[in-house]
């Protein structure tokens, strides 16, 4: 298994690696690896099993506890034991349903990386996607270790469990976008599952809009704790009982752009801001100076057709621009 320091490093542009390929000078790593070890000896496997040890210790104490387990996978570089790769034959991996023309239509500010100097072949894309699927399945297996412990320790009737990701992910959509750092739906939307004792909507899905900032007040609410009054988030406990209850009118996302495109964390040059409603996604880059995007999710869930300059949608654009500027206070759930 590679040392963590090497896994963290983005490979040099154009270099073909033992298990994948690097992107261009401002791109992302396409590296992956088949690990020659068992789950329990991988970093994520160790996290899962150490978490179970803590669950056992804290349960024996008989006092309330908060415990967080963070898994690295499926973050790149994709790495998992061989058995997870074997679940996905390379020839059966579908290619992204996209074309280079889509990439050329994207606003320059909206692109999260430059086109790679060494474009991936269809075979390389399939191997890369296979590694991604293997990493996801591997992570799921570590999650099962925790859920099995929940069963064994009989914690479900007294424990709130939240599963979520920190960002979405591109897998070649929009003509070849990969990884994160965009304001498209694939990057801005996250997985979120909440299991809480006594809630009526068990096993149901909700189409309502929630945000990362809502997690803290929701957990406090479920634990009968009073959160600080200055929070921007809103408890969504109501949705755990009534998943179709009228809720937020918008969810907000922000993405920085550095002077070197993907170096946003080092030196911010400008910012993109986006609001997602039940029907629309509206995005302004650099307060609109570097472009505006408007997508109708009822007709265009893939966000392929930018309607921002279409006069037929001028009123929609104006209303969404106003909501974006007014911010989260203008999108709060209706008062009961």
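-> sequence recovered:
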């Amino acid at each position: 298994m590679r040392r963590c320091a090497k896994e963290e490093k983005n490979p040099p542009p154009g270099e073909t690696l033992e298990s994948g390929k690097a992107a261009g000078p401002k791109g992302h790593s396409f590296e992956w690896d088949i690990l020659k070890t068992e789950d329990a000896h991988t970093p994520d496997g160790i996290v899962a099993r150490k978490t179970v040890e803590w669950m056992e210790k804290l349960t024996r104490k008989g006092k309330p506890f908060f415990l967080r387990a963070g898994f690295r996978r499926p973050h790149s570089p994709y790495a998992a034991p061989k058995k997870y790769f074997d679940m996905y034959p390379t020839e059966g991996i579908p290619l992204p349903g996209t074309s280079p023309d889509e990439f050329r239509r994207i606003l320059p500010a909206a692109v999260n990386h430059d086109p790679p100097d060494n474009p991936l072949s269809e075979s390389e894309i399939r191997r890369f996607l296979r590694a991604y699927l293997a990493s996801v399945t591997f992570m799921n297996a570590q999650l099962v270790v925790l859920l099995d412990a929940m069963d064994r320790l009989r914690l479900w009737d007294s424990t709130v469990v939240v599963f979520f990701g920190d960002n979405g992910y591109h897998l070649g959509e929009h003509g070849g976008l990969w990884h994160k750092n965009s304001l498209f739906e694939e990057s801005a939307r996250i997985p979120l599952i909440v299991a809480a004792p006594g809630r009526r909507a068990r096993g149901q899905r909700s189409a309502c809009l929630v945000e990362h900032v809502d997690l803290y007040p929701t957990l406090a609410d479920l634990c009968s704790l009073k959160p600080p009054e200055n929070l921007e988030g809103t408890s969504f406990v109501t949705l755990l009982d009534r998943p179709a209850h009228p809720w937020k009118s918008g969810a907000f996302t922000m993405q920085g752009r550095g002077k070197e495109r993907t170096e946003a964390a080092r030196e911010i040059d400008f910012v993109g801001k986006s609001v997602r409603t039940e029907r629309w996604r509206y995005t302004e880059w650099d307060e609109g100076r570097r472009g505006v995007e408007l997508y109708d999710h009822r007709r265009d869930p893939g966000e392929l057709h930018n309607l921002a300059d279409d006069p037929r949608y001028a009123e929609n654009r104006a209303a969404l621009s106003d909501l974006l500027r007014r911010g989260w206070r203008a999108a709060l759930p209706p008062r009961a």
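DSSP finds nine helices and 13 strands in the chain.
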